[in-house]
Amino acid sequence: MVPEPTPQFAFEPSPAVPGVAATEGRPIEGIGPGRAAWRRLRRNRVAMASLAVFLAIVVCCLAAPLWADQVAHVGPEENNLTGKFERGGKQLYVVTPPPQTKPVGPGWSGRYLLGADKNGRDEMVRLLYGGRNSLFVGFTAALITTVIAVILGLLGGYFRGRTDVVVRTIFDVIWSFPVLLLGIALGTALSVGGLHVGPIDIQGGSLWIPILVIGIIFVPYLGRPIRGQVLSLREKDFVEAAMAQGDGPLRIMFGELLPNLASTILVFGTLIVANNILTEAALSFLGAGVQLPAPSWGNMIGEGVGLLSTAPHLTIVPGLAITLTVLALNVFGDGLRDALDPRARVRLR
Amino acid sequence: MRSLLALGLLGAIVGAPAVLAGCGGGGAGRTGGQITVLQTNFPDYLDPALSYTVDGWEPLTQVYPGLLSFVHASGAAGAKVRPALADALPRISADGRTYSLRLRKRINFSDGTPIRASDFKHSIERVLATDSQGVGLGYTNIVGAEQFGKTKTGGITGIVVNDATGDIAIHLVKPRGSFTYELAIPFAAVVPASTPSKNQTPHPPPGAGRYAIKNVEQGRGYSLVRNAHFSPGLVGTTVDVAKVNGINVKINSSISAQVTQIANNQADFMIDNPTADRAGEVRSKYTGKRYREFPTTSTYYFFMNTEAPPFDKLAVRQAVNWALDFDAINRIQAGFLAKTHGILPSQIPGYEPSPDLYPGPNLQKAQQLIAQAGAKGAQVTVWSDNQDPTPQTMAYYTDLLNRIGLKAKLKSIAAQTYFATIGDRSLKAQTGWSNWTEDYPHPADFIDVLLNPDNVVAVNNNNLSYNASDRGFASRINAVAAKPLNSQTEQEWAALDRYAQQQAYWAIYGTRKQSTFFSDRMNFQDCKGDDWPLATHDWGRFCLK
């Protein structure tokens, strides 16, 4: 029997197909889904602008020590209550003495560019260092959420049965508490005594307390869609093929299923970071997140509330930073979703 | 008494521009009318056996006199104890352990029921039976009180009363020089013997004062109305003080909103200080016309635990004292601090205007002392609660400790659990914030309560210096605390104050100032009614223009 020849395809792609260039009269080179997604993402100007804004914020925050050393000449926790500084050729109090006791506002000077807070600390320096803390908490907590959610989602979706019941119960229990209340309860309890479980030894007041709290409370947010997707993927032919080849569960979960979850994880991950930054701000505002005197955008707002009418910059400045960061991440996350799953947009239409 | 909201309780004694006698509604200012008072929090209790806050004592002192009472007057005059329901000050036995009093004739509660000697006995028993915080204020020193506190049965054997004659004899376990004062505060107020030994806030029992509490709406407000059955036997006494006919108290959790209401004459008086962002505006617009500030009888300080390194070293404690900058802390606290350096506030008998042993801020000297003590780089946890302005004050303090060479970090916990946490001896809380506002104007209420090494216990410590090993200090305090207050014992208290400063048990940063802010309807010049030792503001002396 003569085997059928392998069909040779040479087609002209439609220019309307996103991510594929027109190549008249000659075969085109195939591109991977990653590159195609990147091309689609690049064409989304709003998403790219958001990414640029977010990266700019990250770079600024990373440069906090530079600003503190070279421009402001003070650290984020250095008080200067009785001092003066020069702005526009005038000597100004950092915090005016009684009867007013008002911190200096924003102005054109390297020192106290965004004004001072109630303790005479440089608001710009605290904003940058606070951003580092807020972003660090946001990203690290998202990483913890992702790792736990992926493991639980894979286990539940792959093994099904009792394992799935246990995983679902864990998700249900965590989500049965209002997120903020759970965060406040855990944050308040742990911020006093810290966390000491086996080899884990975290002192109260450590940044790792809000990271762990936020990292855990959002596990179902990512874990549920992953589990659902794994349940679906597990029925696909490529999984059955892998099983037929004799691959073990671990190899199938992490070698076959996980790569297919990448786009979900990426999209949700981005949104979780934004969510985490907001949650951290809320917890810190309420005193259950990043502990003073370490700055975070949330506790800066909390400290500024008492001087809302006389020093509004203390709440407006960190508030704007949070808004800008979260907005940038959310818009970018939407763009990323569209890029990774272009059919979703088609379906929506 | 501790204050978490930094409310100054029990105001200043000296320095008042005018001493208002206030008896019988006399003095300047008209009588009659209704006023509205704003409180931020509903009182902890509207029950004299249980209340232990300024929010509670300001109204309760108008309603519930005891056998003795503080004069309704500002400043030093208001610190004097006078007979109230008793016909004279107590006769104290030679050994200082028996106090004899007799009730006045023709006295009754606001419901018309005659007051009997057994009502007093029951009132003290209620303090113990309800496990009130007032228990610690000398009442367990009455013979049989300790046992009654445990069993809640059988009564206090050390209080012997005769309803027929009105005689009351109180037998103490050991002499206590401040006991007369302890008979004049709300915990010792007299309520009917029929009053149940449980919280009576929803339906406060009748008292013998010029006012009675009505219309209690938990969390929302209550009213003080004139006592229609005021005792004929109390007319013209220290109890007989009331100018306005009614005081309507409303709870408003926003202090800033309270300021606006007072400024717009929608309410007449607020008991709290304006918020930091409104203080400047109020000071500049209303000082001298509708607003003033006065120092309370309080001491605000950073405690240093002598059982926890590095504060076991005198040089380290002295270094902290040298480094402190009053002006800096005062700015954080919106100017509501008055400078002081002694344990005793200037209004308390025994206060001595001695020179400041640590006239800082002197960071260089502080750094030298830390280096000499070999404490450079020593780890220190600074304890704070989370209620403004404490976190900001403690952030300053933490930064200061780092500047003088220690390695400090701040630990902030909920205000509700703060004192219970740092008062646990086993925790070995190294340093943190604390304050004390007098329960009554006596030096024992500061030095004995807060620094007597004998008062170092396992939990709920008031003595946060944990100086249990200072036996000589304990002996000296115990000796003077047993004696009545006079010029001799005042000098002895002053010497103890100096010693505590030399030992640098605390780093003292000031006295809390309290404000009086009136509406335009009120007679500010003649009826301020503030600066009252017992409860800061004396509502009975308020009057309208």
Overall description:
- The complex is a heterodimer of chains A (349) and B (545).
- Chain A has helices at residues 33-43, 45-62, 64-72, 123-159, 161-175, 179-193, 208-217, 219-233, 237-244, 249-285, 297-304, 313-340, 342-348; strands at 84-87, 90-93, 195-197, 200-202.
- Chain A is mainly alpha-helical and 349 residues long.
- In chain A, strands 1-2 form a two-stranded antiparallel sheet. A two-stranded antiparallel sheet of chain A has the order 3-4.
- In chain A, helix 8 (219-233) packs antiparallel against helix 10.
- Mean pLDDT of chain A is 87; it is low at 1-14.
- By secondary structure, chain B is α+β, with helices and mostly antiparallel strands.
- Chain B is built from 14 helices and 18 strands.
- Chain B has helices at 54-63, 117-129, 145-151, 179-182, 255-263, 276-286, 314-323, 326-332, 363-372, 390-403, 415-422, 444-451, 471-481, 487-502; strands at residues 34-39, 68-70, 81-83, 91-92, 98-102, 159-162, 167-171, 211-217, 221-226, 246-251, 269-270, 291-295, 298-304, 337-338, 379-385, 407-413, 431-437, 506-518.
- In chain B, the strands form three sheets. In chain B, strands 1, 8, 9, 10, 11, 12, 13, 14, 15, 16, 17 and 18 form a twelve-stranded mixed β-sheet that branches. Chain B has a four-stranded antiparallel β-sheet with strand order 4-5-7-6, with helices on one face.
- In chain B, helix 7 runs antiparallel to helix 9 (363-372) and helix 13 (471-481) packs antiparallel against helix 14.
- The radius of gyration of chain B is 23 Å and the shape is globular.
- The A-B interface holds A 77-79, 81-82, 95-102, 118-120, 188, 191-192, 204-205, 287, 291-293, 303, 306-311 and B 256, 275-280, 283-284, 325, 327-332, 334-335, 386, 388-389, 391-392, 395-396, 398-400, 409-414, 417, 421.
